[in-house]
Every structure is written in C-alpha cells, then in structure tokens.
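Reference record
================
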Amino acid sequence: MFKNILVTIHLQYLENHPKVLSTALKVLDPEGKMTLLFVNENMKHGSVSPLMEETNQKNYNKDALEQLKEIADKNLVPREKVTFKIREGVSHQEILEESIKIKADTIIMMASRPGLKNYFIGTTAERVIRHANCSVFVLRHTDK
C-alpha cells in the first residue's frame, strides 16, 4: 500500500479515468493521500504561446482544475483523500518535478500503445519510468 500517490490525468481521455483512479484507490493506504495532476502543455509549443494571453491561460487552468474535481467526484474519490494540481510545461518533466515536490512514493499513469514514432522519441510514460525516484504504475487502456 502506498501513502502518497501521484496520479496523472489527461482531461481528454475520459475512458481512462475510471481505470487509473480505481487502481489508485486499490493501492492507496487507508491513511494515504493522492494528488491528481494535469499538465497543461499549451505553453510548451512556441506557436501557441503568442495566442494564449495570460488571462486565457489562467481561465484554462481554472477550468482544468474544476474538471479534475469533477473527475474525482464522478469516480468516487473521497475529497479528504485527494488534492488537485495543475502544472504548465512538458508532461514528463512536470510529472517528475511534482513527484519530487510532494515526495510521492508512487506515480500512476495511463499510456497508449506505442507507435513507430515512439521508438525514436519515446513516450511520456517511458521518460517518467526512466527518471522517477519512486515506483511507477503504467496502465494501458484495454479493449473490451
């Protein structure tokens, strides 16, 4: 059982939320806490940066925070067990930095099936696994 779990959430992949959160709840110590993390990558791309005014960026992050809370509620994550975090930047870097900051004892994340391009540049999950200072659970979305 883990006492401090970092769970990465991608807001667009709704079908992944139940699996990643139910797994986190299964391995969470009764006295443990989890952090739901969404990484806003909008500003990492130079072509998007000029288009995203500071006010728009703050509103985007505020909306993302509300979506994280709705996801937690929908998947029956007790509010007293969870905190929510929005970070901006490159996903794998932000996940690793947040795991260090909160002293996570594990990271739980979803991953897609690798394609040809992943053999050359790698995936977010691969980069997190390679550099994390804690255990990492990588779940795949399975077809029914």
Q: What stands out?
A: The first helix runs from residue 17 to 27. The radius of gyration is 15 Å. DSSP finds five helices and five strands in the chain.
